[in-house]
Batch of 2 targets.
Target 1
Amino acid sequence: MATVQPLEGFEAQEFEHDGIRRQVFHGGTGPAVIVIHEVPGITPLVAAFARRVIDQGYSVRMPSLFGTPGKAMSVPYVIKSLTGACVAREFNALALDRTPVITGWLRALAAEAHEECGGPGVGAIGMCFTGGFALGMMVDERMLAPVLSQPSVPFPLGKKRKAAVGISDEDFERVKARARQGGCVLGMRFTNDPAVAPERFETLRRELGNAFIGIEIDSSKGNPHGISRMAHSVVTEHFVDEAEHPTFVAMERVLSFFDERLKN
């Protein structure tokens, strides 16, 4: 049986906005969902997640922001990609209350995808380093289904950064206004994950109220599902494709969230 290559079936195109040019992988039909990969890049498991979204009836846009598309994860690869991303001006990884420059590019990509695919709006999921990007995209009214999967930036160094959500105060006010108007945000994290402090989700719950759906998966010592205390990536590296497993339940909730918001 032939092995399916990680990006087989996706069409690669270039997208440029405001001086930033990136490769974007397209696949599927239906309302648009932007799948924003984690560090180190579009790994085979990120592509596998994108295929689940396609199979659910969506048109995926998967931009390559750093790394080598299709390359498998490894520790040296993670270190190299993370180092590059941290110093790139597009990501503002070390900033406390500043929306990353790349978010404007992602909003433009989502706007184009909505125009091409139709539907009531667009969904997006950010992961790890890019987890908060989907929140910043919610400033645009076309973003109806933002998902924050283990949002790790700003890095939780100190009390303020642990509680920060990774966008400017001005943009967060706009997100809160949209939440009051019926907008909704879904977030996921493992409880023992040091990269995503519980204070970050506490901020989202306090500021967004019932408009924030928080999924926190028990990864404490002795948890009933044997989830590693080092678990981090909910829908990729640490996803377990077994019914009743907490990560499988979380995956199903992400897909149903897209359905609720984008297939009305």
Target 2
Amino acid sequence: MTMLEQHRFTARRDGWHCRPMAVMAIVALLAFGLVLAGCGASAGGAERKATTAPAGGATVSATAEAAGALTGELTVFAAASLTDAFQEIGAQLEADNPGLRIVFNFAGSQALRAQLAEGARADVFASADEVTMEGAREDGSIAGEPRIFVANQLVVILPADNPAGVQELRDLARPGVKLVLADETVPAGRYARQILTTMGRNPSFGSDFTDRVLANVVSNETNVRQVVAKVQLGEADAGIVYASDVTPAVRADVTVLDIPAEFNVVARYPIAIVRDAANPTAAEAFIDAVLSPAGQDTLTRHGFLPAPSGGDQ
């Protein structure tokens, strides 16, 4: 190799060839860095979208909302006898819709009607009788047509140790028996008095049976669950309640006397959306859940009867 050729080779190695290679390496590194930065930004954005929720309470993501999940708060006013069954139905609806929160107000139907008439906010009203529901509609508290969703009947309950020795329905008229009823303004109390009146018309009970039984009433409670509590605690010798009120929690503490069908009543329970409901979509979904086969199965397991045929009003 001549001196000139050697000089040209050195120049290509040290300058014209090496510098372009270095520039190309730097450009490649910069491009790789931009790709990594872009991936990081995309991952961060996706994480923020999944974890960010609107202010104001528990709600589901935008994806869940788009899929039709129920959100927000739903307030249900329901007769006290529905406590256990409705809590179970509500818990399942919440589990299916993580953005939904259900708030229950259980009380005597007449008390709930009064609260609604006075402006209490609710989305759903379920009454233990049609009279109270019709009154709520007359008050302007109800939107649309109520639907009958279940039925019930009444039984006599006694403390498990039965200190008064009540063996049959006739014994309710015996002097000294302490009887507790729901107040006559409460559906269960009104039904109980209707049953006692029907018994009094039957010659086997005697014409004064009804008066003698009512003379033994020592307390009139504002809802049927309070009647159960009085008997369960031994503060009364007998009470008349719904069959569904004899729950597993109290079954060991009471004895049940059945009331024959010829004297008993069939209580029909209506349910409706409240006028100006804050969450009408969830309200309708709750009613649908109650009327669904699963909801009806839950109510049956809690001692209720299927709604009479043609139950929708």
